[in-house]
Amino acid sequence: VTFDFSAREVTLSSTLMTVDLTGLLEPNNFYSISLPPQSLNDLSGNNFTGLPTNVYIFGTAIEAVTGEVDWQDTLWITLGVIIVVLLVFIGGAVAYLVLQSGQRSARVFAREVRKTTKKTSQVAPIFVEDVDDGFYHQ
């Protein structure tokens, strides 16, 4: 956009120049202000040396995003995620307990066999029968 100093968008005082850019700028863009040499004089009559393009750069804000949030949908999605996380956690805990209980039984049986096989002279012979129910019977 180019303005003449006599345009209604430009206001000059003895110490200030104001340019009204209302409605002329697009959101989320960068702009540069330039002033040609000798376009202004100070109170002593000295000429302004000018402001080249791309020396003074400014940007405009991103346009506001407006929209409605459906809190009911958000609530149901959040509850669904919480329920899934809880189910995964509970399932993991149950699987861990089942695996740990199986390992404890195996360790107890192994200890009993080791104890009886270390001192065979003091222990009566043990006969172990393998039955298809998953346990060993004496």
UniProtKB/TrEMBL annotation:
Membrane-spanning residues: 75-99
Assigned keywords, A-Z: Membrane, Transmembrane, Transmembrane helix
Record's keyword annotation contains Transmembrane helix: yes
Protein name, entry field: SbsA Ig-like domain-containing protein
Organism: Symbiodinium pilosum
